[in-house]
């Protein structure tokens, strides 16, 4: 007896999705450090916010720690893509440690902006999420109290600088483009002379992934975002999907977290992945959906990414 035909499902696949250049660079730094120095290589904080990436690197010989004092003096340490306070590399140098800074160059750009504003005597506002490693690292570039964190438009409305004519702002790189625009609008209305970033701080990868989701969201009964729950940019993709008109949106770590109940009555599903999620997880999810449905695949690709970042010279040159 023939099996019943599978129901049809339109699967809209967002592109760009998954790894960005900064994540790819950070992972390569850990891999190269292990190749060059042998295991273990220590990594301060998760190199990127994805459980699958962390577990794979752990299998290669990476040891993940929260603080530098957990690292032996004689072993290399890598600082995560999110960036670290200035005190961390200073402590590593004081201990004569070998370290590699995997901070995303676009996060480093924010650090340089903050330092420039501080050096010119401006009062500085950082738009971001309290406690996020990127925010901790950015605020740690300057003395305590030098940066005021603003998380919401309401925070922006009540912020009171000493000199309203001498304020500057920067932002976390993985925020919602639309939410951040609302906060910036409040700040610019209150402080017309506020110094803005020379180029938008929200990184190209965050913007591009959000734009792809916006383009498909209204056509989707469900949008599935692959990413870890501590990944800021992945969480923002869920919010963007819902705001863009998706009937439902879910963040899942991988295909094993797919709940069949979500698919009842669904005819169009959108799929994307946060900037720290490997492409193999996307393909696993497509395969899982293919077991239940006859899939018609549609690509949603508003832009093509060609960005790549160089690795530290110490990891690209052969030992003497």
Q: Nutshell version of this structure?
A:
The protein has 320 residues and is of the alpha/beta class. 37% of the residues lie in helices and 18% in strands. The chain contains ten helices and twelve strands.
Can you walk through the features of this model?
This protein is α/β, with parallel strands linked by helices and 320 residues long. The chain folds into 3 domains: 8-19 and 204-300, Cobalt-precorrin-4 Transmethylase, domain 1 (3-Layer(aba) Sandwich); 21-104, Rossmann fold, CATH 3.40.50.11270; 106-190, 4-hydroxy-3-methylbut-2-enyl diphosphate reductase, catalytic domain (Cobalt-precorrin-4 Transmethylase, domain 1, 3-Layer(aba) Sandwich). It has 10 helices and 12 strands. The protein has helices spanning 21-37, 51-60, 87-94, 105-119, 133-139, 153-158, 177-190, 204-217, 232-243, 279-292; strands spanning 8-14, 41-44, 62-65, 77-79, 99-101, 123-127, 147-150, 167-171, 222-226, 249-252, 268-273, 294-300. The strands form 3 sheets. The chain has a 5-stranded parallel beta sheet with strand order 10-9-11-1-12, sandwiched between helices. The protein has a 4-stranded parallel beta sheet with strand order 3-2-4-5. Strands 7-6-8 form a 3-stranded parallel beta sheet. It is flat. The mean pLDDT is 95.
